Amino acid sequence: MTTGSITKAYARFVSIYDLVFGYSLAKGRRAAIERMNLQPGDRVLEVGVGTGWSLPYYPRDVKVTGIDISSEMLSKADKRVKRRKLNHVENLCIMNAQAMNFADNSFDAVVAMYIMAVVPDPNLVLREMTRVGRTGGRIVIANYFRNGNKSTRITEWMVKPLSKMFHFKFDLDLGAFVEQGNLDIVESFHANMFRHTTVLHCRNR
Which residue of 9, 31, 177, 185 has the fewest CB atoms within a 10 Å radius of its CB? Predict the structure, then answer.
């Protein structure tokens, strides 16, 4: 799986992305943001913002930047921002999450929802998230992680046909991921249908 193949896949399926991953993952997105305890003026980066489904959930008194590798996805996000008058969204940028063009300590909170399963190197993305986030700031990750539970095995079986289409994988180990990321977990909870999504609220060391 390469960045190029992912970009091509999402260019093909951008028209149905919200139908497949919009409402089905909305509760997890909303819960992740609501429990972040964002403060007025906080600068937030959403990595892999996609079509911008989560952007309306952020408080209007924070400043949000969204990045994505897909120009087609960002085009839909931009239309959502204009249609919903989301003035708290400052920037939407085409950018590779594995090599961000931001200075160190640029954001109070860095969020990645449902992208760790599709990027070529999740640990590299996480290192970039901790780099551009300020020390002591928030790192929030919502994703599927392998845990062996019966409910998640059912979810894997249900969405297996979509996994090849959207290039996402089911083999991320939660413990190894957190250890390599040098994160302090403040809160962890499950969300969405069958509680298959793990949401991690972490403190950036």
Answer: 185
AA identity, residue 110 = V
Q: With contact defined as beta carbons under 8 Å apart, do 42 and 108 qualify? A: yes
**What is the distance between the alpha carbons of residues 179 and 174, in angstroms, rounded to a whole number?**
9
Q: Which residues contact 133 (CB under 8 A, 6 or more apart)?
A: 45, 105, 106, 107, 108, 109, 110, 139, 204
3-class secondary structure, 46: strand
CB atoms within 10 A of CB 32: 23
Q: What pTM value is reported for the model?
A: 0.85
Contacts of 57 (CB under 8 A, 6+ apart): 29, 30, 33, 34
Q: Report the run of H or E that residue 126 belongs to, with start and end.
A: helix 122-132
202 has which bridge partners?
139, 185
Taking alpha carbons only, the member of 110, 91, 103 closest to residue 38 is 110
Beta bridge partners of 133: 107
pLDDT in tens, 104-140: 999 999 999 989 888 889 999 999 999 999 999 999 9
